[in-house]
Amino acid sequence: MSLTLYGFDGSTYVRTVKMLLVEKGADFDQVQVNVIKGEPHLPEHLARHPFGKVPVVDHDGFRVLETAAIMAYLDEVLPGPSLTPDNAHDRARNHMAMGLYDSYGYGALVSVFGFHLFPDFIGGQNEDSRRKGIDNSKRVIRELMKIKGDDPFIAGLAPSFSDFYLAPACAYIAMTPDAALVFAVDGFAEWWKRLQALPSFQATIPQ
Amino acid sequence: MSLTLYGFDGSTYVRTVKMLLVEKGADFDQVQVNVIKGEPHLPEHLARHPFGKVPVVDHDGFRVLETAAIMAYLDEVLPGPSLTPDNAHDRARNHMAMGLYDSYGYGALVSVFGFHLFPDFIGGQNEDSRRKGIDNSKRVIRELMKIKGDDPFIAGLAPSFSDFYLAPACAYIAMTPDAALVFAVDGFAEWWKRLQALPSFQATIPQ
Questions:
Q1: CB contact under 8 A, A91 and B72
Q2: Which of A5, A34, A105, A154 has its CA 20 to 30 A from that of B62?
């Protein structure tokens, strides 16, 4: 079996996939396609992804693009514990949280942590975009915590993809002075403590 | 069983869900939340979706947001034929195509058909945005047709979610003078003919 992950450790979505790979105990190679240096837009990466995005995964010659597709595929074909919830309601909670994160969460969180940590990457420091980002980040995190309810993880009793979606972006937010504002959502603190304690979170901290 | 679909027939994503409901032979109620009239941003809809989007589905009191989550959930819990491919590779092709459509396809296609059909909805007619939209629409459709390969549908021998994602936006593109440009992609014409012939496509044409 050959498994190659294209994407650099600074990308939150790459870390999402790596958390799953660690949870599965998978062997894989990684090619560090550096987003900050513009490497995803080099011809060799555009041949892998027509819009120059990471992560991309190659599994025995089968190429998978887009994080949600990669997560479902790898969870299914790799041995190790399943990260897919075991009933239809929890699977829907997982998908819903992933969808809300993709549609509204990632962009909002990036506009906050990018402001402080990678301003060039997001086209410079824009105070208005940061403020809107804080509001929308809270709105998404609030919705995800509503989906979680009283369970330990977003889609139930065990970690699933949606937890691995949210955690890497929260790790960047935690490095900024806006963390207290963004994280002031009911239920978040306990979830965040639980996520940071996961071995797959610890093993994927970007260098 | 009670099943309510919130969202108006003009929305391509609402039609995506309706195509699945028709394929499943499901009974459902629909609340026409009109995007063009701004109804998704009324408090009663914001209580259903914090970012004021459609579709939203309520199934026996369980609320599902985001089209990918709705599709997977309904396909699983409703009787009728399965719209989920029966092997891991085809499931990955389906998810990949949905991800590419969500991330790059929808916005590109809307900027083309919106220009001609709903200019107010997309903030007015912008020639540059239309031209970029044509390029990006073709790039996404080309990638989806590569995923399809020689199969009749995007993820294999039978229709799956990804076909129902792409078709409703193509129906709007077909009404514009840019159709010939956008649709000039290898393999598209046969796929599009096949999709338009589906009873679920016919039954969901917006009035």
A1: yes
A2: A105
Residue A65, helix vs strand vs coil: strand
Q: CA dihedral in degrees (A111, A112, A114, A120; nearest 10)?
A: 60
The DSSP bridge partners found for residue B65 are B56
- For residue B171, CA distances in Å to A149, A196, B15, B178 come to 40, 46, 11, 12
Nearest Cα residue to A142 out of A87, A107, A104, A85: A104
Cβ contacts of A76 on chain B, cutoff 8 Å: 88, 91
Q: Whole domain around residue A126: which residue ranges?
A: 88-199
Question: Tens-of-pLDDT digits for all 207 residues of chain B?
Answer: 899 999 999 999 999 999 999 999 999 999 999 888 889 999 999 999 999 999 999 999 999 999 999 999 999 999 999 999 999 999 999 999 999 999 999 999 999 999 999 999 899 999 999 999 999 999 999 999 999 999 999 999 999 999 999 999 999 999 999 999 999 999 999 999 999 999 999 999 998
B17 shares its domain with B104: no
Considering the domain architecture, whether residues A109 and A193 belong to the same structural domain is answered as yes
The CA distances from residue A155 to A148, A158, B122, in Å, are 6, 7, 35
Residues of A contacting chain B (CB within 8 angstroms):
50-51, 53, 62, 64-69, 72-73, 76-77, 88-89, 91-92, 95-96, 98-100, 102-104, 139-140, 142-143
ipTM: 0.96
DSSP three-state, residue A179: helix
Distances (CA, A) of A102 to A84, A109, B58: 18, 11, 21
Looking at the fold, whether B169 and B188 belong to one and the same domain comes out as yes
Phi-psi sector, B204: left (phi>0), alpha (psi -120 to 50), beta: alpha
Nearest-CA distance from B51 to chain A in Å? 8
Q: Are residues B17 and B69 in the same domain?
A: yes
Query: How many structural domains is chain B composed of?
Result: 2
CATH code at position B170: 1.20.1050.10
Same domain, B17 and B93: no
Summarize chain A as % helix, strand, coil (round to 5).
Answer: 55, 10, 35
